Every structure is written in structure tokens, then in C-alpha cells.
Structure to design on (620 residues):
């Protein structure tokens, strides 16, 4: 295990804007993918995008969405297990040719929406070929009911007619019965949002971010129990939910009783749109704005990652323009409190649409009938993310590869959490008792307090789940981590008493196992200089080039030099760099000539799913 293994300090979302102003270079700030490839998802709430094109006779077309358009792929599988896959367009539209394939068909859409990972499904009969088939959480529920189990499990094991136990249930009549029953149970919510009473949830064309059905997808959540036998549909406004027994089809018995109440949902569509507009206005204040203008968008009791209203406003107004706050997802709107409050997440992107960071736990309040950004109300800056790191070190250039989780805590203002001594992080893949983080003596990101196992790095914010150079947790522990896994950061006082701090952060995609890394085509960047050349570097200008970067993501470079003869260490840290369309970048980093006796070089590639791949060199 490389005991000096650390990572970049996780930047707050507004720090991204400083880079262009700091002279990182035009190529770094203006390149990268456009929003048409990056899937910005829109921020205004009223963006209009074209509906799916008319299909050919041998095609399916439709929209893959989960409140926001899905960015990823659609796969269709026929009755014989034959599959075809196509990419989803930026507005969630897809088209896929099934010529020569045999119905019935099942669909899988995989990708990101609002910075979260989705695997959702749908289904169609042979008679549906040449028409529209949407893929949404509601169509996923339709297939789950037909299959009698979670659609994801059914899709995975259904490789031919003989292995699909309920393929005989995928008939036109059974499919229509499930669609009608689901519509009837959701009808109060659908009609309150302006959806036509006779809508076909499977086949009706709709436009993401601009139609009543899409608004319904914003306020309806579908979850499944661990056994995969019961689904729960929740109205995020009223928090009312209804259950759906997957083992009972609509054709087997009378329709299940109980419809989802509308409650105050009628105004939620306008409110979600207003929140998206608010973030557009906040984005416009990045650089060139005024602190006063920013403050006009903030609540009266604002707090964001331990930064107060004045600090946040000055940073936003003084930063460079171009950062966009997009992909807004609202998890809950509570109209029962005064003022009403909404909780959700967003993604920060570069001007060209590249992924910079996702914020989980954003809050908004409606003061005097106007929605304001409430921050996240956290007295700490926290984040969890997946990191894969390849380290070269020593005179022989030894290489170790580790994969695990960044568990970041930064206490900007210790005065507002008196008595806080340590943080325990719990969640999938971590020990039952959690991982303890202590404040860093040098400030900045907190570190793992001690080695819970021999594989952890004391003082680092990186918790290794697997390491090629030492014993570590098995790959089965890592691969069991679900999508959108929740990690809870709980604060404690010195005596072990709770400090009244408990925050949750969701990780969209888990770290890859060492076995999985061997098959990854785009992951660790290729870096120049190589380790041998870096070992001979003695300070001055160092040109660092990287290739193989994700063109929809961002990158960071850090150079740390430990001085000789007692000189202080020096650090150059460039974050949120935007690759070119070819997935490359080049930067010159400079420390004092002759000052380099030990230190490190790190190049990190951040993907839109939140995973980071780092190459680092260590000299000591």
C-alpha cells in the first residue's frame, strides 16, 4: 500500500469559475463537448426540444427520460435474446431498427439524468414496430408487472424464449391492461398536472422539459423493495405512496385499489420550473455580476457548505463567467411548512456543457411567493465519489492500482459546530462501524483517522476497497455497491456523543473493481512526462500533457514540490480543465528551479457519471 496516497482537495462548485480568469488558457476553457453531447438537460424549465422523429416501418422511436432526458444508450432485446444498442439523443429521443428481430421486445435505457444513474426498461409487441415506445420509470413498472419481478432482473436473465418464464405474458392485451391500470392509479396526479385522461404512458410522444407528462415524471418516484416483489410509487409533493404487488398482473384480478392523491401537486410543475429559472439567474451572475445581485437570489437564512451569504455572493460575483447550474432534480417539495421548501440536486457544467460537479442536497425556499436558493444548510462541506488511482513510485517505477471512495469533509468555519471532534461515514462497501475522519492539522480536507484495515491510508480522504499491492476488501464487496448509493456523514463530540450533524451524499456510480478496470477502454489518462522523466525533473517549467480524457468531463493537474535545504514546499493545482474534442489537454506548471527533491504529479480525469481516474507519480 502506498501510504502517501492522497487526492486533490474537492473543490466547491463555484471554484470552477476561477480557472479561466486565472489564465489557464483559452483551450482549457472553451473546448470540450457541447450540451448536445453532454446532456445539460436545460435549466430554464421552459426549454423546447423537438419530439421524436417519425419512425421507419422497422424502427422503434421514443423518449428515454426520468424527469430529465436520459444521457446514455437504449438496448432492445427480442424473444430470441438478440440485442441491438443505440445512443440516446441529447433530448432523450432514440430510434432503433429491429429489422430481422422477433417480438415481443424488451428495452433497457442506461445512463444519467440529473447526475444520477438510471437503468430503466420498457416493452413492446411485434404490432408496435414502426411506432413510439417510451422508456421511463413508469414503463419500467409496466414491464415489472408483466414479468412478475423487477424489470432489470427480467431483462438480465431473459436471453431466449425458453428462459423467459413469463414471455407468454408479453401479449398486446396483457400489456394494454397493465398500462391502463397504472394510468388509472396515477390519474389524479396526472390530471392535476394537465395530462390528458386517456394518455398511453407507453406510447404517447412527449417532449422533455416542455410537456405535462414530463412534469409528472418530475413528481412521481418509483422504488422497489429488496426482494423485488413490491414497487412503491410516491408523490414527492404529498409524500403519499401506493404499493404495487409485482406478482399479480392486471389481467389476473380486478385492478388494485387505491389511487395516488394529487394534493398540492398542481402548482409543483410551475414551482419546479421556477427553481430551474432561479438557477439560470444564479448562473448568469458567475463573473461580471454583483454581490448584491447574487444576494437577491438567496434566502434570508442562507448557508451553503459552511459558507454564509456574504462569502458565497462575493465568490460568485468575482469569479469568471460561463459556469451553468443545470440538470435540476427535485426530490421533495413540502408545502406544509412556512415558507415552502424544496430539496434536490443539480449538476454544474462548463460553458460548453462539460461535467464539473454534482451537488446533492440543494435546498430552496419560497419566500414572499418567490423561490430563493437556500444553500444546503450544512455546517461542513462534504462529498463522496468513486476514485480509481494508478500510482508509480520508487527507484524502479513500481506501479500499484487502487480503487475506492473519496470521503471528503472540509470545515470552512469551525465556529458554527462547536464540540465537533470527528465524523463517521457509513454506507455500502464500508465497514459496519463506518470510517472515521479527523480534522487535518494542516487544514483542508479531513483524513481517515487510523487504518481500519491494513489497506487504508492514514490522513488521506481516500478509502481503498481494492489495492493491487496489498490485501484488501474483496471485489464482491465493491461490486455489491448499488447505483446512487447513499453515504451518511455523522458528527460526534469527543465523548462519543452525537454532535447534531448528519448529512447524506449519493454516489451515482460505484468504483470499478480491479477486474473490471482491465476491460475499461476509457479510464486512466495517458500522461507525459512518464514516471522516468518526472524522476529527473528538478524544478522550473514542466509541460504536462494528457490524452484519453473523457470529452464530456473535466480534468485536474497538481504538482507538489518539496524544497531542498529547508525550503518550503510549493504546489500548483489546476482544476476543472476542459479537454479538447480529441480528449487531450496540455498545461505548463512551474515551481522554483532546483527546489524539487521529493513530491508528486497527479493527473485526474473526471467522467460525467462522477467517477474519477487518476494517474499519480510519487518521489520521496
Amino acid at each position: 500500500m502506498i501510504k502517501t496516497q492522497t487526492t486533490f482537495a474537492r473543490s466547491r462548485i463555484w471554484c470552477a469559475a476561477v480557472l479561466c480568469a486565472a489564465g489557464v488558457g483559452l483551450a482549457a476553457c472553451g473546448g470540450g463537448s457541447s450540451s448536445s453531447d453532454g446532456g445539460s438537460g436545460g435549466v430554464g424549465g421552459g426549454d423546447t426540444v423537438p419530439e421524436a422523429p417519425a419512425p421507419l416501418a422497422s424502427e422503434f422511436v421514443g423518449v428515454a427520460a426520468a424527469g430529465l432526458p436520459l444521457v446514455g444508450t437504449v438496448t432492445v432485446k427480442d424473444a430470441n435474446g438478440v440485442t441491438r444498442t443505440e445512443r440516446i439523443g441529447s433530448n432523450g429521443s432514440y430510434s432503433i431498427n429491429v429489422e430481422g428481430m422477433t417480438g415481443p421486445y424488451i428495452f433497457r435505457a442506461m445512463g444519467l439524468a440529473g447526475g444520477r444513474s438510471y437503468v430503466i426498461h420498457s416493452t413492446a409487441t411485434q404490432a408496435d414496430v414502426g411506432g413510439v415506445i417510451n422508456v421511463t420509470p413508469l414503463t419500467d413498472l409496466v414491464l415489472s408487472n408483466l414479468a412478475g419481478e423487477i424489470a432489470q432482473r427480467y431483462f438480465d436473465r431473459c436471453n431466449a424464449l425458453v428462459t423467459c418464464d413469463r414471455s407468454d405474458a408479453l401479449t398486446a392485451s396483457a400489456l394494454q391492461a397493465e398500462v391502463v391500470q397504472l394510468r388509472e392509479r396515477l390519474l389524479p396526479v396526472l390530471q392535476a398536472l394537465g395530462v390528458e385522461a386517456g394518455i398511453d404512458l407507453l406510447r404517447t410522444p412527449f417532449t422533455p422539459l416542455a410537456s405535462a407528462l414530463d412534469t409528472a415524471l418530475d413528481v412521481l418516484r418509483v422504488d422497489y423493495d429488496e426482494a423485488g416483489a413490491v414497487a412503491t410509487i410516491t408523490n414527492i409533493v404529498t409524500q403519499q405512496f401506493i404499493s404495487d404487488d409485482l406478482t399479480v398482473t392486471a389481467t389476473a384480478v380486478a385492478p388494485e385499489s387505491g389511487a395516488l392523491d394529487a394534493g398540492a401537486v398542481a402548482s409543483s410543475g410551475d414551482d419546479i420550473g421556477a427553481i430551474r429559472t432561479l438557477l439560470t439567474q444564479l448562473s448568469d451572475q458567475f463573473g461580471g455580476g454583483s454581490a448584491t445581485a447574487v444576494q437577491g437570489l438567496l434566502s434570508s437564512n442562507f448557508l451553503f457548505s459552511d459558507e454564509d451569504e456574504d462569502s458565497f455572493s462575493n465568490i460568485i460575483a468575482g469569479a469568471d463567467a460561463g459556469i451553468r447550474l443545470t440538470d435540476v432534480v427535485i426530490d421533495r417539495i413540502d408545502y406544509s411548512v412556512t415558507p415552502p421548501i424544496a430539496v434536490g440536486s443539480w449538476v454544474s457544467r462548463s460553458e460548453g456543457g462539460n461535467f464539473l460537479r454534482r451537488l446533492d442536497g440543494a435546498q430552496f425556499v419560497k419566500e414572499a411567493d418567490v423561490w430563493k436558493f437556500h444553500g444546503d444548510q450544512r455546517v461542513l462541506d462534504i462529498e463522496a465519489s468513486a476514485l480509481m488511482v494508478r500510482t508509480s513510485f520508487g527507484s524502479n517505477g513500481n506501479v500499484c492500482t487502487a480503487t475506492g471512495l473519496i470521503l471528503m469533509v472540509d470545515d470552512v468555519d469551525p465556529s458554527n459546530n462547536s464540540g465537533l471532534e470527528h465524523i463517521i461515514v457509513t454506507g455500502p462497501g464500508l465497514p459496519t462501524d463506518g470510517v472515521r475522519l479527523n480534522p487535518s492539522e494542516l487544514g483542508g480536507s479531513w483524513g481517515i483517522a487510523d487504518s481500519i484495515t491494513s489497506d487504508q491510508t492514514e490522513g488521506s480522504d481516500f478509502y481503498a476497497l481494492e489495492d493491487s499491492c496489498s490485501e484488501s476488501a474483496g471485489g464482491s464487496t465493491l461490486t455489491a455497491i448499488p447505483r446512487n448509493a447513499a453515504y451518511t456523514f455523522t458528527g460526534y463530540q469527543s465523548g462519543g456523543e452525537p454532535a447534531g450533524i448528519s448529512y447524506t451524499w449519493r454516489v451515482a456510480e460505484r468504483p470499478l473493481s480491479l477486474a473490471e478496470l482491465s476491460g475499461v477502454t476509457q479510464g486512466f489518462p495517458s500522461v507525459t512526462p512518464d514516471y522516468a522523466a518526472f524522476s529527473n525533473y528538478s524544478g522550473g517549467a514542466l509541460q504536462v500533457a494528457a490524452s484519453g480524457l473523457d470529452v464530456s468531463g473535466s480534468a485536474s493537474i497538481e504538482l507538489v514540490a518539496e524544497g531542498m535545504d529547508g525550503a518550503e514546499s510549493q504546489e500548483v493545482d489546476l482544476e476543472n480543465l476542459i479537454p479538447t474534442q480529441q480528449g487531450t489537454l496540455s498545461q505548463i506548471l512551474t515551481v522554483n528551479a532546483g527546489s524539487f527533491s521529493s513530491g508528486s504529479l497527479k493527473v485526474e480525469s473526471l467522467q460525467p457519471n462522477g467517477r474519477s481516474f487518476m494517474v499519480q507519480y510519487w518521489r520521496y
